[in-house]
Amino acid sequence: MATFLDVTGLAYFSSIFVFIFVWLVVFAVLSWVKVLGDNKFIHALVGLLLAIFVLTSQIATSIVADIAPFIAVGFLFVVIISVASHMFGAGANSFPALKGVMLVFIVLIIIVSAGVKIREQIDVPSEVQTDLSKTINLIFHPTFLGTILVFAIAVFTIALLASKSA
C-alpha cells in the first residue's frame, strides 16, 4: 500500500541527487570562500567537474550519499548563526573564523566517512583484532591519531612561520 511517507522510490534517483548536491555544495563553498575569485562561471564549472568526477566513482557516490545529511546540518548551523547575528545587529563578518571551522568540519566528515567506506571494501588479514569499520575505532586508532598529530604540527608550524613579520 502506498502512503504519503513512502519514499523508497527515491533511491533510484540517488545518483542524480548526489550529482546536484556536489555541484551546489562546491559552488556554494567556492562562492563563500572566494578562493578562485568572484567569477561565478569558474565556481559553477569547478562544481560541475567535481560532480561529474564523483558521479563516475561508485565509492565516491556512496560516500557523498552517506555524508550529505551531516553537511546539510553544518550548513543549517551556518544559516542559523548568520540569521541570529543579523537579528542582533551584527553582520556575517562578526564571526571571521566561522569559514575555517566549517571547512574543517566538512573535511573531517569527509575523511572519516571515506575511511569507513574504503575500510568496508577492502580485505583485512585475520590477525587484525580491531574492527576499523566503526567510526570510533577508526578515530582512536594509533595510526590515525599519529597522522592527525603530524598534520596539526604542520598546520601550526606553517601558521607560526606565516605570522612572523619580516
Can you characterise this structure?
This protein is mostly helical. It folds into two domains: about 10-120, no CATH class; about 125-165. It contains six helices and no strands. The chain has helices spanning about 15-35, 40-55, 60-85, 100-120, 135-140, 140-165. Helix 1 packs antiparallel against helix 2.
User: By helix and strand content, what is the structural category?
Assistant: mainly alpha
Average residue pLDDT:
79
How many separate helices?
6
The biggest beta sheet is recorded as: none
Low-confidence stretches: none
Radius of gyration: 20 Å
How many structural domains in the coordinates?
Answer: 2
Portion in beta strands: under 5%
Helix-residue proportion: over 70%
How many E-type strands?
0
Strand/helix succession: HHHHHH
Distance between the termini: 72 Å
